[in-house]
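This week, study the protein below.
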Amino acid sequence: MGRARGFTLVELMIVVVILGILATLATVGFKKYVGRARSVEAVAVLAEMGSKEQLYKLEFANFIPLRADNNLALPSPDEASAAFYPMAAGSSALESARTAISIADSTKWPTAWQNVGLRPRDSQLYCTYLTNAGAAGADTTGLKYGSVLIGTNNVAPWFYSLAACNLSGATGYPDDVSIFALSSVGSSLRVFNEGK
């Protein structure tokens, strides 16, 4: 009758290493999946902002800034300012945690959003949003993304919408945060710092 033989220490270590590798792969895959799911929110909200801007222009022959500070006169020269909604793009809330910001009461939407009927479907937002707009000939040189998206010689009214999303837990706006952008010049969505 043979002796019962157990696993050797080497065999157990091999199993532990394999499990560690599988867990690492699963974690990386899950983070990418979560990032893609959250980027869907940005695309949907920017598309809604774009359509509201176009409808507004049809009626009033101009675009309107959709900003949390409700300033209709000038575009925000500091795109990390409180003009973003629901939080400043450079705030520790966006940089430190990839958690949704709850919007408990629909009356908390910025006045500019309410004026054009912009109401995101979810009561929680993972990204923060800003739409700058200006009249023909308005200079966008001082705007980090505006100068890229619009240029400086504007012969028509313009707008651009930004979504700042922390998809990876990175810190340091704007260099380590994914920026989704839509503008009146061209119809394609642009992404800066994709996946960060």
